[in-house]
Amino acid sequence: MPEAGSIQPPFEKTVLDTGVRVLTSNMPHTGAVSIQVLFGAGSRYETDELAGSSHLFEHLLFKGTTKRPTPKEISEVIEGVGGILNAYTDREATGYWCKIALPHYKNGLDVLLDMVRDPLFREDDIEKEKKVVFEEIRATHDSPEGTVDMMMDDLLFPTQPLGRDIAGSVDSVESVSTESLKEYLRTQYVASNTVISVAGALSHEQVVADVAELMDGFHDGKPAPMFPFVDNLSGPSLRLQHRDTEQAHLSLGLHGISANDDDRYALRLLSTIFGGSMSSRLFEEVREKRGLAYSIHAGPAHYKDAGSFQVSSGVDPARATEAIKVIIDEVVKLRDGVTEDEFSKSKELTKGRILMRMEESRSVAGSIGSQELLLGEVKSVDEVIKDYDAVQIDDLKAVANRLIDQNKLVLAVVGPFDTEEVFSPLLTL
User: What's the CA gap between 2 and 14, in Å, rounded?
Assistant: First the structure.
């Protein structure tokens, strides 16, 4: 429980006899409740042959249950009273969530738990939803931004699940069978692999009692582990895809650090200084001073045992090499450290964003739930703020020198170029 005067809504945790973990955050000022049901399930748990099965599985849970056989019967319980119902599949987690007015909270909880406990998996639904997923995959491939992101993932994490599209490929999704989906339900959607987080004007005891009632008899088992990260980069690498686009889409990347690495707070501050706002170094140098891009962004991604640090932008093809050189030069400068002014402003900006997110129940439910599932512990906002305050300016220089490795720099480009030769010399730092 937080201290008096804390800015963090209190959170509590109970592990049910079944193994299901229930976390709540009491937010008495809000009339809406956010509920999230999380599983350790995602693309990092899939073989190459079944790539995209986690994402397809997530789609199918909206198609019907024994209690509510149609998508309409599922959605109208929540959307019919003004709520929001959705889900997502990531590399390390799959989540089902809703935001609903307080008087309808238990109905929202009932719908989510019904979906994950008793999906129908009708053959017709599976075939129809595969076609929907095919269109998602094609839309991503049609998008230059989506394509360059996929290319970057594959360059950073070649021949492993971290480098694959979360949605899989048309061929891999087509090969997913009804039996493999049912087996996925039996192995990954088990009690000990389930986290339920609720944020709103509710007591912890009430939520625990409601979850225990609705999850009574939920089966348990030993879920399959995720495939571990393998550092198999052999040197700088480059990939180009020719497209007759008006802009060249660029992504520059390095390996980063894991979600529980001690340097993660320093890296977040460094990335804010580098490319996390309209006052960042990249924005000032690339857009304001040189007019090379309308937008440019840089930031880290964290996983259980790995991470990445990436820069993304769209530029005039005629100035693509200039833009890449400028970006790389700015990356290299990070090794020299940052100014006191940059450091102090980055801290305040980062802390301010965290505090603002905690005003919204969905953000709170998402934060406590994902921390529990992926890290096995929950840090309050107060604790996180203290961790940022503890970072020293020299820590940013240290993490920059730790990560910026000339032998691991990778570049992905989508645009009207016929050869990689013009870009290759740029990768030598």
Answer: 17
Q: Which of 58, 129, 342, 372 is catalytic?
A: 58
Say how far apart CA 373 and CA 367 lie, in whole Å. 10
Does residue 175 fall inside a structural domain?
yes
Same-domain pairing of 131 and 172: yes
Nearest to 126 by CA among 70, 195, 177: 177
Residue 108 domain flag: yes
User: Distance (Å, rounded) from C-alpha 76 to C-alpha 27?
Assistant: 26
365 burial class (0-12, 13-18, 19+ CB within 10 angstroms)? buried
**pLDDT for residue 384 is more than 50:** yes
**From residue 353, how far is each of 259, 272, 347, 378, 379 by CA, in Å?**
19, 11, 10, 19, 16
- Note whether residue 5 is domain-resident: no
pLDDT digits (tens, 9 = 90+) for 29-49: 999 999 999 999 999 999 999
Q: Output the domain CATH number for residue 108.
A: 3.30.830.10
Other Cβ atoms less than 10 A from the Cβ of 356: the count is: 10
Give 3-state DSSP helix, strand, coil % of the chain, rounded to 5.
Answer: 45, 20, 35
d(CA 156, CA 164): 10
Which tens digit of pLDDT belongs to each residue from 199-212?
Answer: 999 999 999 999 99
Active site residue 359: no
Q: If we measure between CA atoms, which residue out of 11, 429, 130, 413 comes closest to residue 247?
A: 413
**Do 109 and 28 share a structural domain?**
yes
